Every structure is written in structure tokens, then in C-alpha cells.
């Protein structure tokens, strides 16, 4: 049975993982007859957002602890991710990718990736194992795969421009489809960069996961 490593960035769209994307992806993995295990960096979140009013809450939360809420405890520190145990990688979106896994939300194309997340992700790239990035997560790709990597965040012009500035090659893509960089065995889909509801997000995610498992 194929096994997929999933890297989370917290719990909640505005300061962590986009929960719908994560759950849809985990469900799709199981429906394709594969297994999953989640990982996250053991660090404090950049900040905590009240998801009712959008205001910053003055508290401290840990990315690994919060991600465990989504994974129901089926999760480990990303430093423990051994790629020999996994056939593919998947990274859901959410602002946690741009605030916790990297600082893209603060610095755009001049961003840096959390070193542990970067090492784990690059290990899949170097081993030529397939990987999938959803929503805003493709902003990590140029620093992981180097110049020329093809990916999509949908059609947002500012984010696409930042992706290209970092050395990637952005490809426009509708919500119900995905982009495959065959050379790098790399898949991306817009998900909630374009989706207006769960069903729309599911259309592209399901297609992407089906292809990811096929490639694994």
C-alpha cells in the first residue's frame, strides 16, 4: 500500500492549514487505496488569528500541536520525516504555509522557508518522488526545485508574479484541474485560491490526488 507524507502548517485558514483542503486531500488519499501520515514543524505560529472577526489574538500556539487537531494525532515532527518510508509528498494550503512554513506573507518573492520543511521537501525532489502542493503552497516550490519549475496558484496576478520572480514558471489553471510538471513529477492545483465552496475545492484536489497516487 502506498504511503503519502502530508506536511501541515497549523489549524485554520488564516494562521495555519486550510482545514477543508487538508481533509479533502486525506480523504482522497484513502479513497485511492493509499495511507497517509502528517508532519509539521515543532515551532510557534507566526501569530494566532480569531477566525470569527479576523483579529490577531494575543496568545502563542505551536504549529505541530495545532496540526495534530486535523491529523487526529497521526502526526510527527517534520524533522522525523524519512522519505524512505513514503512514496509521495502532499502539502495543503492555508496562510500557515505563508506564515509558518515560510514568511511569504511578509516578504513575498524574498521569502525564506523553514529549514526543516525545506530539507524534507527537497529530499522528495532529489529522490524524484512525486509531490503535490495545493492553493498557496506552490509558493514554496521555486526554493525547493530551483529555476523553471512549473506550477499554479490559479490566476492571482500578484502571487503568480512573485512565483515567477522566484524562478518558477506559473501556469494559469481553473479550480477543477491541476498542473503537472512531468520532469519534476510535481503537481499543483488552485483549491481555495479560486474555490468558493468545499465542492469546488474538491474537484481539483481529487484529480490531483488520483494522479499523485498513480505516479507514486
UniProtKB/TrEMBL annotation:
It catalyses: glyoxal + H2O = glycolate + H(+). It comes from the Bacteria. Keywords: Lyase. SUPFAM superfamilies: Class I glutamine amidotransferase-like (SSF52317). GO terms for molecular function: lyase activity. The keyword Lyase applies. Gene3D superfamilies: 3.40.50.880. Belongs to the peptidase C56 family. Displays glyoxalase activity, catalyzing the conversion of glyoxal to glycolate. This is Glyoxalase. It comes from Photobacterium aquimaris. The gene is elbB.
Amino acid at each position: 500500500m502506498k504511503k503519502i507524507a502530508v506536511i501541515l502548517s497549523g489549524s485554520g485558514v488564516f494562521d495555519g492549514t486550510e482545514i477543508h483542503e487538508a481533509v479533502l486531500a486525506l480523504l482522497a488519499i484513502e479513497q485511492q487505496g493509499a495511507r497517509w501520515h502528517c508532519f509539521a514543524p515543532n515551532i510557534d505560529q507566526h501569530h494566532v488569528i480569531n477566525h470569527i472577526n479576523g483579529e490577531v489574538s494575543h496568545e502563542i500556539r505551536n504549529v505541530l500541536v495545532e496540526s495534530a487537531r486535523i491529523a487526529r494525532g497521526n502526526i510527527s515532527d517534520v524533522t522525523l520525516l524519512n522519505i524512505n518510508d513514503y512514496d509521495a509528498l502532499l502539502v495543503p494550503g492555508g496562510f500557515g504555509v505563508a506564515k509558518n512554513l515560510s514568511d511569504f506573507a511578509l516578504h513575498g518573492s524574498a521569502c525564506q522557508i523553514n529549514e526543516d520543511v525545506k530539507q524534507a521537501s527537497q529530499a522528495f525532489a532529489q529522490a524524484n518522488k512525486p509531490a503535490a502542493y495545493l492553493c498557496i503552497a506552490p509558493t514554496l516550490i521555486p526554493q525547493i526545485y530551483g529555476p523553471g519549475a512549473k506550477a499554479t496558484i490559479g490566476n492571482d496576478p500578484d502571487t503568480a508574479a512573485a512565483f515567477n520572480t522566484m524562478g518558477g514558471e506559473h501556469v494559469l489553471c481553473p479550480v477543477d484541474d491541476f498542473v503537472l510538471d512531468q520532469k519534476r513529477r510535481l503537481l499543483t492545483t488552485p483549491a481555495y485560491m479560486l474555490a468558493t465552496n468545499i465542492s469546488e475545492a474538491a474537484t481539483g484536489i481529487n484529480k490531483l490526488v488520483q494522479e499523485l497516487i498513480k505516479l507514486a
